[in-house]
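Please go through the protein record below and see whether the fold suits the sequence. Record follows.
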Amino acid sequence: MTVQIQDSYIVTLFETKFHKNKLEFVDAIKTLFASQTKAEQYEYGLLKAYEKGDLSIGQVADILSLSKKQTLDLLEKYKLGFVNVDSEYLDQEFKAFE
């Protein structure tokens, strides 16, 4: 398989840092993606702990060294809810207004 690289920065990186060594270049890209995946798994795990009620949004933000706004953006990225309520909770709340 042949890949044409259009980005001049990537071409320069390939030619200078990797001295046109395709195997080394591909290994570096694989490592980059693997580390990105691990970071995303870690983020997701913390956000699921928030969703379950084990951590607060502030605690997740502190652990990830992010602002609360950035942490809320991550909830959106992973399609997780900021507020999770079940039907039983809603029924109790509605009964309080009767």
Q: What stands out?
A: Residues 22-52 form the longest helix (31 residues). Helices lie at 8-16, 22-52, 57-64, 68-77, 87-96. The chain has a mean pLDDT of 85.
